[in-house]
Write a structure and sequence with these properties.
With 473 residues, the protein is α/β, with parallel strands linked by helices. It folds into 2 domains: 350 residues, Alkaline Phosphatase, subunit A (3-Layer(aba) Sandwich), CATH 3.40.720.10; 70 residues, Arylsulfatase, C-terminal domain. It contains 10 helices and 15 strands. It is globular, with a radius of gyration of 23 Å. The N and C termini lie far apart (82 Å).
Length: 473
């Protein structure tokens, strides 16, 4: 028989246990999620198994396909038409036309984001996140505009693009005229340093090193208890699509298939690390591509059912794979054709992480957290303008496209149409037969007008604008 004293002790113990459980639950609810954001370079819509590729492209992609089944997979994820603009809009939450980053820079012209721009890395860093970028940057290649100057605690990779790895094997190339691109690394508040030349040998090895360093960063942060933003910018399958020697000949189906197997393995290593660290339930994993597939043979990719490649406003140029996993938060096994744009990542991740979105400049990013978390079946976005460099090529709205220019490949000059083409993407996914659904022109031009109205007080930043920059008053 329990005495009154014993009953009081038990009651007190139960209260303590309940208090601890409640406190632990509250702590878990307030804990900021880690973010593993994997961006690949020029992967077309149709390359992965879950999007109709995989074995039809010579190599299954089981790890990435499984990731897609564990969360939300989008069939209408859109990026800008080129590498630099897509990476700019991801980082700033602003269409690249605003930031002077609307085209891939060629010929050593001034390039990159001005320091006035605020990146998602800066916002997350201010919110207590450890931040790292490993891989391709392409938003500035000199001190002041490298990742460690734009909110990242550390970075490793290339400042520009992978085709420069071909220079050393090009006939007549002279390094004293144009130095080879360097593989670099740097830390916040320090100058970055060059590690080695980015040549064909290093091109084959770099994604393995990117993966190795990304795994190490996640391990360090999990041990420290800091929430992290690990932005992994793999260089595959950008030309030259050369697989790592460990994967060369592995599929028996050529370099492209070997590269696909390598990419799947690298993603798998990062996912295994998240699981091994016991942080899967509190880690958002995103996988996507920066634009449509390669155009150059023999490295040309596949856009699946869509026509076109990068540098064009065709669906093949802008529609990319996208998947997001957050166990217990993002419903598993969900597939949606709602429109989302890469520019939306800033507002969405900031909302989830408790970070700030700048309010002193026009922002194009829309918060998609309600949609991603399954609280709404509808995206926050109905459409967006599409630029090719600084030309407004088209507008996409719901399931329609309005083309102002005709451009079938990256080498075709954009030809202004006498009468814009209206395309119903449901009826004509290859964008070959204009319709007479002229009523959709009204909401589409409203989209353009709304954007133009935001450029009056804070105008577009010209490409090549030096630092320091401040918008005119």
């Amino acid at each position: 028989m329990k005495t009154k004293h014993t009953q009081n002790v038990i009651a007190t113990a139960l209260i303590c246990v309940l208090t601890m459980v409640t406190a632990t639950a509250a702590l878990a609810a307030d804990q900021k999620p880690n973010i593993l954001f994997i961006l690949v370079d020029n992967l077309g819509y149709g390359e992965l198994g879950v999007y109709g590729g995989g074995i039809t492209r010579g190599a299954p992609t089981p790890r990435i396909d499984k990731l897609a089944s564990e969360g939300l997979r989008l069939t209408n994820m859109n990026m800008e038409t080129q590498c630099t603009p897509s990476r700019s809009s991801l980082m700033t939450g602003r269409f690249a036309i605003r930031s002077g980053t609307y085209a891939v820079p060629f010929g050593g012209v001034p390039e990159g984001l001005t320091q006035w721009e605020v990146t998602i890395a800066e916002s997350l860093s201010d919110a207590g996140y450890a931040t790292a970028l490993h891989g391709k940057w392409h938003l500035g290649s000199h001190d002041g505009r490298l990742p460690n100057d734009q909110g990242f605690d550390e970075w490793y990779g290339i400042p520009r693009t992978t085709d420069e790895s071909l220079w050393s094997s090009s006939t007549g190339y002279l390094p004293d005229i144009v130095p080879l691109e360097k593989i670099m690394e740097g830390k916040k508040s320090e100058k970055s340093r060059a590690l080695k030349d980015y040549d064909l040998e290093q091109r084959r090895l770099i994604d393995a090193e990117i993966t190795k360093r990304s795994v190490a960063f996640m391990k360090r942060q999990a041990k420290s208890g800091n929430p992290f933003f690990m932005y992994v910018c793999l260089t595959q399958p950008h030309l030259p699509t050369e697989p790592n020697p460990a994967f060369k000949g592995k599929t028996g189906n050529g370099d492209w298939a070997d590269m696909l197997a390598e990419m799947d393995s690298n993603v798998g290593q990062m996912l295994d690390t998240v699981d091994m660290l016991g942080i899967a339930d509190n880690t958002i994993v995103i996988f996507t591509s920066d634009n449509g597939p390669e155009f150059f043979k023999p490295w040309d990719g596949w856009a699946g059912p869509w026509r076109g490649q990068y540098f064009t406003a065709l669906e093949g140029g802008i529609r990319v794979p996208f998947m997001i996993r957050w166990p217990g938060k993002v419903p598993a096994g969900h597939v949606s054709n709602e429109i989302v744009h890469g520019v939306d990542m800033f507002a969405t991740l900031a909302k989830i992480a408790g970070a700030k979105v700048p309010n002193d400049r026009p922002m194009d990013s829309l918060d998609q957290s309600e949609f991603f978390l399954g609280k709404s079946e509808k995206s926050a976005r109905e459409g967006f303008p599409i630029w090719g460099a600084d030309i407004l090529l088209a507008v996409k709205w719901r399931n329609w496209k309005l083309h102002f220019y005709k451009q079938d490949t990256m080498f075709d000059p954009p030809l202004k149409l006498g009468i814009p083409f209206i395309i119903n993407l449901y009826a004509d996914p290859r964008e070959e037969k204009p319709t007479v659904d002229t009523w959709v022109v009204t909401p589409m031009l409203k989209t353009v007008g709304a954007f133009n109205a935001t450029t009056i007080d804070i105008p577009l930043i010209p490409m090549g604008t030096p630092d320091p920059y401040m918008p005119p008053k």
